[in-house]
Amino acid sequence: MGLTVPTFLLDTGLLFADTYALKRRVEQRYGVAIRSVRPRLDLADQAAAHGPRLWQRNPDHCCYLRKVAPLKEALAGVDAWITGIRADQSAARADARAVEWDDQFGLLKINPLAAWSRDDVDRYVQAHDVPINPLLLQGYPSVGCEPCTSQPRAGDERAGRWAGLEKTECGIHQRLPILDQEPSR
Prior knowledge:
- The chain is an alpha/beta fold.
- The protein has one domain (7-176): 3-Layer(aba) Sandwich (Rossmann fold), CATH 3.40.50.620.
- It has helices at 17-30, 43-50, 54-57, 59-75, 118-128, 134-137; strands at residues 7-10, 34-37, 80-82, 99-102, 107-110.
- Strands 3-5-4 form a 3-stranded mixed sheet, with no helix packed on it. It has a two-stranded parallel ribbon with strand order 1-2.
- The longest helix has 17 residues, at 59-75.
- The model is unreliable at 176-181 (pLDDT under 50).
């Protein structure tokens, strides 16, 4: 029997339909159950509490509510978590190591792809017929929440995230002072 690793998706409620379809394909292909980790507030409650379209007005706060806080809850009680980040994805990720201590969540962070290039990933996907998000084939090098993801014209892989802003990280992989506690409204 193989090792069972609890697997989850941060389901912000704002993901592309293609992302949800990929989750189902992965579950079927590999015979795993991927738990959906959701924020405490659904979109309607978030709008009532913080105003509509928070991702436009205060994307750091939206990312905290929809991604960082739910991840912190999902990681409670575990010793380590495994990510898919690569050091070559952006300047913010350039120092990523295969195994490192994650101060933000207080546990080990394992990045098995840290030293891989985009070409390495593409070769592996091809060789092993790994299901991928079809948006990657449509010019989206990085896929996140639908309102905050676009096809970049130029730049690094993260350039299509939060277009028009300096922001390229949601806060999960980059410790920012604003994420030490819930950001102000």
